[in-house]
Amino acid sequence: MENKLANPAPLGLMGFGMTTVLLNIHNAGFFPLGSMILAMGVFYGGIVQIIAGTMEFKKGNTFGTVAFTSYGAFWLTLVALILFGKWGWIGGVKEGFLGWYLFLWGLFTFFMWIGTFGKNRALQTVFFTLWILFFLLAIEKWFGIKVVGTIAGFEGIICGLSAIYLAMAEVINESLGKTVLPIGARD
User: Fold this and answer.
1) Among 38, 127, 182, 183, which one has the highest count of C-beta atoms within 10 angstroms of its own C-beta?
2) Which residues, 6+ apart, have CB-to-CB distance to 155 below 8 Å?
């Protein structure tokens, strides 16, 4: 009996992409950080990506498992860092130390980007722009240069939109049985 499993990547990519766009609309200076972004971070960016990573595990996709579960955990820890200090559970994180948190996620993302070299161009774009985003945010936190954070916000919107594009390309292309939205597949 054939066991055909659904592709969980579009679900994980949408969880990542939509949450990333919303947070970076804030980083770009358009709106304050609020409950909408934090709720998306916990539920869609966090929990849904971890579910997608678990589904990738079932399919035997190491890259997808590591990516989705790791970035799901990123969103959960980021929200925890923001809220724990506000709730007085644990002292808030100093900006410079938050820079190291972002730098380590950037380093992880750099290596994951290398892991995309045999994959489609759209996925390479998602990880490349995410790598740049983490390093811009780390620089902002280390040196307190607000304009770098604003630039990171615009760059992060591009990153999130690239993930949304890839997610929808995978859904639409699979649903229609043909390439409607190209992803730059590797030959």
Assistant:
1) 127
2) 24, 129, 132, 133, 136
Handedness of CA 16, 21, 147, 94 (dihedral sign): negative
Report yes or no on 143 lying in a domain.
yes
Within a domain: 1 = no
User: Based on the number of CB atoms within 10 Å of its own CB, is 137 exposed (0-12), middle (13-18) or buried (19 or more)?
Assistant: buried
Burial class of 52 by CB neighbour count within 10 A (0 to 12, 13 to 18, 19+):
buried
Average pLDDT over residues 154-175: 98
pLDDT tens track for 132-147? 999 999 999 999 999 9
pTM above 0.90, yes or no: yes
- Taking the C-alpha atoms of residue 31 and residue 47, their distance in angstroms, rounded to an integer, is 24
* 84 located within any domain: yes
Structural domains counted in the chain? 1
